[in-house]
Amino acid sequence: MIRLLLQLGIGGLICLLLTMGSATRAGAQEIEPYEFVPLPAGTNLILGYYVYGHNTDFNIARGSTVKGSGLEINVGLARYVHYFDVAGHPAGVQFIQGFGALSGGHIDGQRLNNAFGAQDTTLSAFIWPYVNTATKTNVITAGFINPPIGSYDSRAALNLGGNRWRGTIELGLSQGLGENLAFDAAFDVQFYGDNTSYVPGNRRLSQDPTYRAQLWANWRWSPAFTTSIGYEGFFGGSQQVNGFFDGSKTEIQRVRAAAALFVTPRIQTLLELNHDVHVVGGFKQDFGATVRVLYVF
User: Fold this and answer.
1) Domain region containing 134
2) Cβ contacts of 206 within 8 Å, gap of 6 or more
3) Which are the contacts of 104, defined by CB distance < 8 A and separation ≥ 6?
4) Rounded CA gap, 208 and 193, in Å?
5) Which of 136, 207, 255, 287 could form a disulfide with 54 if both were Cys (CB 3.0 to 4.6 A apart)?
């Protein structure tokens, strides 16, 4: 950390700390309520998301928190899901593509560039190895891969793409209790390839795996309307530049609340609000919101 400061100064260090801002920490593996309940083979889903984040206070791991910082996130996601059976087990594949903007970024009085463009594409496959309709128990495993095809500029402090391969494995559980109460739980591990074109100067970015736990408690008020409260925690993810820790990690504690309504039998709308209660090694998302529209056919 000290060596990086001497080499780059605060401006260069800020660029190093921003390779994966709050917009990309959420990732495609972030679950919404009831996503782990399998649907019949042949079912298709088209989903559209708008994701907003208002970020304040930038924390440098093993260092200080820079007050008065900020970053605005506006991202749209398009997602397609197809369900089928594999050897009698429900399964499926999905494709997710994000586009958007990072704007208004500033740390310690220094303005950051705006970023516009595409996030890295997400390709995924999943299967339920255990389903028990009598006990309303569903266990799912999923794999995700993100090829580095999003928008990226090594000279910029903010980027929508990561210029590196990422892969994730996830284990999830959906458990219903009675007619109204249900829980969703998930644990995933994300692995990172190296970014060999990381800021000018032939520097290599590497990163330790990020571990994430998610939990939703859901209450079904009617067949069409549900509300949920949730938790999301990220752990690990320390970054190194040419072998030296750069002050950035993926450690976040987040609380969430959501409401979902089927406005027709085939169309569902969802609103999620969230807030980071603790962050190490990055921006704190003071207020976040997700609007989702789902169409089933």
Assistant:
1) 2-296
2) 192, 194, 239, 240, 243
3) 70, 71, 72, 114
4) 10
5) 287
Q: At 260, which CATH number?
A: 2.40.160.40
Closest to 120 measured CA to CA, from 248, 28, 236: 28
Alpha-carbon gap, residue 194 to 165, rounded angstroms: 7
What pLDDT, on the 0 to 100 scale, is given for residue 73? 96
Residue 29 confidence class, pLDDT cut points 50, 70, 90: confident
pLDDT digits (tens, 9 = 90+) for 241-289: 888 887 788 899 999 999 999 999 999 999 999 999 999 988 999 999 9
User: Which residues pair with residue 279 across a beta bridge?
Assistant: 252
Point out the least confidently predicted range of 15-24, 118-127, 148-157, 202-211. Answer: 15-24
Q: For residue 237, give both structure tokens.
A: 């993810």
Distance CA 32, CA 292 (A): 10
Amino acid letter for position 201? G
What is the 3-state secondary structure of 155-192? CCCCCCCCCCCEEEEEEEEEEEECCCEEEEEEEEEEEE
pLDDT at position 272, please?
Answer: 98
- Decide: 189 and 168 in contact? Cβ < 8 Å: yes
Give, in order, the Cα–Cα distances in Å from 246 to each of 125, 165, 203, 204, 223: 33, 20, 12, 12, 49
What integer pLDDT is reported at residue 28 of this predicted model?
Answer: 62
3-state helix, strand, coil in the chain (%, to 5): 5, 65, 30
**Other beta carbons less than 10 A from residue 217's beta carbon:** 16
Q: pTM to 2 decimals?
A: 0.89
Nearest to 114 by CA among 100, 125, 127: 100
pLDDT by residue (tens digit) across 57-73?
Answer: 888 887 788 888 899 99
Q: Please state the φ and ψ torsions of residue 66, each to the nearest 5 degrees.
A: -90, 105
